Amino acid sequence: MPTPPLAGGTAGPAALRPLIDTVLTALHDGAALRDGPLPAGGPDTVTPRTRTATHPLIPGHGTGPHHALRALVTALTEGAADPAHPHCAAHLHTPPLALAAAADLAASALNPSMDSWDQAPAATALEADLTTALATEIYPHAPSPDAVITTGGTEANQLALLLARERHGPVQTVCATTTHHSIARAAWLLGLPEPVAVPAPGGTMDLAALDEALTTLHRPHLVIATAGTTDTGAIDPLDAIADLCTTHGAELHIDAAYGGPLLFSPTHRTLLHGLHRAHSVTLDLHKLGWQPASAGLFAVPERHHLTPLHHHAPYLNADDDTEAGLPDLLGRSLRTTRRPDALKIAVTLQALGRTGLADLIDRTLATAHHLADLITKTPTLDLHDRPTISTVLFRPTGADDHTVATLRRTLLNRGHAVLGRAHAEGRLWLKATLLNPHTTPEDLQALIDLVTTTTEDLARTTTPTTPRTEGDTPR
Hints:
It is built from 14 helices and 11 strands. The chain has helices at residues 12-34, 43-54, 65-78, 98-110, 121-138, 153-168, 181-189, 207-216, 238-248, 314-317, 319-323, 342-377, 401-413, 441-462, and strands at residues 146-150, 172-176, 196-198, 221-226, 251-256, 280-284, 296-300, 381-383, 391-396, 420-424, 427-433.
């Protein structure tokens, strides 16, 4: 077998072109075989079928690039939960834009590593400009806002707690019961006290309970507010929380991984009023930004807030190189080798502009409200609440939690729909997290019909029948 060609250089595109054609064909064929939002049959069917199609993963003699691509990409696509399907709506799992995926291909082919300038000369400049621009969206009046690219909300939230610890020592984190699980995990990883969780009636942080907690606790505080919870999409009262933080001398971090991109919508950005008052903000563009994962951001109002992240490794940022003008990148992440995720984000922002991104956001939120309307008009379904962003909770009327959980798994096993689950007001709900701007009213009605007919199927198969005895009268 000849030496395989490389993706970079002037010869790389010619080598990639036929391989990309094979990949695109496999993506199409796999989706056609699946013919739905996810494969039917559950793990007991999908796992052995995938293993059969991809075995052996390490053969004695290679099968060649086209055969390997065709076999594995087809198998992975056939067995995928496809967020581009309108009935795949369980999680903050976005269908990426084609242009962002194309940009990601370029990033893979060029393979810059964002840990030293000599591995990523142009990508360094692009990332610096992009992070400054996005930080300025969050902190429009700050003199020197900045941000770093992260793998997502979990890494960004960990940075928030890490930097607060570096400023104040073992800070006490205070959050709501609806706060993302990554906050508790970050406190554990960093050796910080377990977070104090205050109630969140109605899905948002209780201000009186927060005031009491900040009054009672006697150590530096870091309050975590959320702009878009994973369960309901609720947004905490950011301005009022910032006021309490100012009163008590606490710092504020806002996890806006889900809701942050609302900043780009003139219609919906008022939901984030007070965001700029945070000491740090988490943002994810692989959620309501339609980027391939990962595309996270951690933003601060002043560049020097990131100084504690500085790290020295002479082979990557030697002092004399830095003094000679080569940018020092090790303080831009906790990671060393990392991808140029800024490229796909920058391509998307430039291609769509503010109006194009706002249109995607507004379409998506309007779709969520339309689903809520359909649920309200369906007598056999209950709506939890109107959506704040694009998450809609609902359940069959009169169903218990076991029935709701069984209904969800039945839809999964049949390959009909991917819906999430969330607890609210002491009950289990089906969760539709709508992130597909191409979803139509017909798609939503079909989803409602699937839920109602499957509920009826379950009722028929689980209703106990009592044998008739002599003297019984048929009804």
